[in-house]
Amino acid sequence: MSGRLGISRRELLVGSSCVGLAALGGGFAATRAAAADMVLPIRKVSGLEIVPGTQTLDMMSFGDNGAPPVLRFKQGEELVVDVENQLGEASVVHWHGLRIDNRYDGVPYLTQEPVEDGQSFRYRVKSPDAGTYWYHPHCNTLEQMARGLTGVLIVEEQEDVGFDHDLPLNIRDFRMDGKGQFIDFYKPRLAARGGTLGTVSTINWQVAPVYEFPAGSLVRLRMAVTDLTRVGTYAVNGGVARVIALDSNPLPVPQPPEDILLAPGQRADVALQMPDQDGELVTLTRRTPSGQKVLMTLRAVGQSAGRKLVELKPLPLNPHPVPDLENAEVVEFLFGWTPESGPPIVSICGTLGYTFWSINRVAWEGDTPGPVEPLAVLRQGKSYILRFKNETPNDHPIHLHGMSFRLLRSNKRKLPPLITDTALLRKGETMEVALVADNPGNWAFHCHVIEHQKTGLTGYIRVEA
Ligand code: C2O
Ligand code: CU
Ligand code: CU
């Protein structure tokens, strides 16, 4: 059952190299001779059914002619990925949430040159941490993600924790009309506020899919919100379920699967014990003003396997360094509105031509080769408290590349003691988080509402020896 979605590394390798060989000429073959673990093409796809009964033109995907593949590898092991750009425009791939070597972080100009159409780039993807992550472009990000380029990435624990099945959930909307064709990806008026919501909600590129699992089996739901804009409150209804990890990090105490608040970029792992009766249902819902919207249904089939959640081993903690709060230096970041626009920026990675937002009073100029100053320079190995101050009347999921941080406190609410790479900063909120600056390099730091990211709410933090 999980084989329907849980693509094994072997299947993926075979699948994508076939695509690569069929579609490509000598340049790519030469790279392949040096033996990557996998080839990941970025390409246009057309004719897939997103809105039932229609065929969408001009989508973008990774891998084969379908939704982006789920990438999987083991904690601590390296996956060598040759990204082949067949898109007809420049791109780069970023591995969201991974504490990766800066050279492979996939941010144009900051960590690498954009990968031009017809070129390929070899990424060495490796993670000290296990958990649910995702991957997406960081070039012409709004359009490329809107057209489909968001995929789930799984780093498996070194020791199996005992699930029978694993179901990655790529949760996102598309902005489409009733005929399944893309409409404007955003509206400037909304980009200056909360952002432009999608119109068609999908899981794994399907509207309200139904999956079957053996009754009484243990399923790991890996929710990844890869949407560009939507902050949602999710619930798993039916069976016996617990949230066991948020943003790839195990929860000290598993939580009931209600009120799971997830912003763009965030993830949740849910341990689910399927109902014991054949035909019984479990749903994944998202709260809306008019009630609960069913995003997905799971049906229990056959005789009960009789498994119980207590049979699972607890998820091992990831090896994050512990900040020294006594001696930590405080660094402040002010998230603000920037009403005025400068001259239009020319960038091959795309700009929207507006600036609405800023960090520390500076609006990001877009992805350009020119020198842009870091927002902060941190000393490698030192502990820091980052103070996020939101002066705007909107919520922003604040995301840092390359390092994770611990939530300390907020002026508005009690924060759970989570370790994360993406924290939802509410309007008017000041939040303090802590980290050890242990990963050298230039690390992008931005709001993950892509319209905000692309209209100023971006910068970077430098960690140097
Ligand atoms: Cu999903 Cu710059 O990040
Ligand atoms: Cu990221
Ligand atoms: Cu934002």
Q: What structural class do you assign from the helix and strand content?
A: mainly beta
Strands, total number: 30
Q: Give me the CATH architecture of the largest domain, please.
A: Sandwich
Largest sheet: 6 strands, mixed
Helix content: under 10%
Indicate the topology.
Layout: H1 9-23, H2 26-33, E1 38-45, E2 59-62, E3 71-74, E4 78-85, E5 93-96, E6 120-126, E7 131-137, H3 141-146, E8 151-156, E9 165-174, H4 188-191, E10 200-203, E11 210-214, E12 218-225, E13 232-237, E14 240-246, E15 249-255, E16 260-262, E17 267-273, E18 281-288, E19 291-301, E20 329-337, E21 357-359, E22 376-379, E23 383-390, E24 396-400, E25 405-410, E26 419-420, E27 422-425, E28 430-436, E29 441-447, H5 450-453, E30 458-464
Parallel strand pairs: 1-4, 3-8, 9-12, 11-19, 20-23, 22-30
Antiparallel strand pairs: 1-2, 4-6, 5-7, 7-8, 9-10, 12-17, 13-16, 13-18, 14-15, 14-17, 18-19, 20-21, 23-28, 24-27, 24-29, 25-26, 25-28, 29-30
The chain binds CU-O-CU linkage and copper (II) ion (2 copies).
Residues 396, 447, 449, 452, 457 line the site of one copper (II) ion.
For the structure shown, list the relevant keywords.
465 residues; mainly beta; Immunoglobulin-like; 3 domains; 6-stranded mixed β-sheet; 5 helices; 8% helix; disordered N terminus; binds CU-O-CU linkage; binds copper (II) ion
Describe it.
Helices cover 8% and strands 40% of the residues. It has 465 residues and is mainly beta. The protein has three domains: 9-156, Sandwich (Immunoglobulin-like), CATH 2.60.40.420; 165-311, Cupredoxins -  blue copper proteins (Immunoglobulin-like, Sandwich), CATH 2.60.40; 325-464, Sandwich (Immunoglobulin-like). The model is unreliable at 1-32 (pLDDT under 50). The structure holds CU-O-CU linkage and copper (II) ion (2 copies).
